[in-house]
Design goal:
Blueprint (H helix, E strand, L loop, with lengths): L1 H24 L8 H12 L3 H16 L4 E4 L5 E4 H44 L1
Antiparallel strand pairs: 1-2
Length: 126
């Protein structure tokens, strides 16, 4: 049984290596779409349409489970480097923190202005 498993894994290793090579060659901005990645691999490995369809789920599984790459969903989704995703997340968190600080400062200023106004009106009435 383990010989069969090992032989299947040995046949998948070149596919995963080719996937790594195709991803490392890509230097574009934004996200790399899976169909584009598969097209790059099909040209590089001389695949026909049947081989592309057979290897599509394996490539997707490998990329989704690779810690160097992050897969996003949606209209602008695709494959991006994990480091790029972490940078985007840090920027988003910094913006949220700045927004919270700005809101707190604004509330403090409004409160101080309201207190000053109530102090002025109380001294005028006395």
């Amino acid at each position: 049984m383990s010989n069969i498993v090992q032989s299947v894994l040995d046949r998948l290793a070149p596919l995963f290596q080719a996937t790594d090579d195709a991803l490392s060659e890509w230097s574009g901005e934004g996200n790399l779409q899976f169909p584009v990645l598969l097209g790059m691999m099909a040209v590089k490995l001389n695949w026909d349409e049947k081989q592309v369809r057979e290897n599509d789920p394996l490539v997707r599984y490998y990329v989704r489970n690779n810690p160097d790459w992050y897969v996003t969903r949606g209209a602008h989704g695709g494959i991006m480097k994990s480091a790029e995703k972490q940078k985007k997340e840090q920027v988003r968190l910094a913006k949220e923190a700045a927004k919270i600080q700005l809101q707190a400062a604004l509330e403090a200023k409004v409160l101080a202005a309201a207190n000053a106004k109530s102090d002025d009106s109380s001294t005028e009435t006395e």
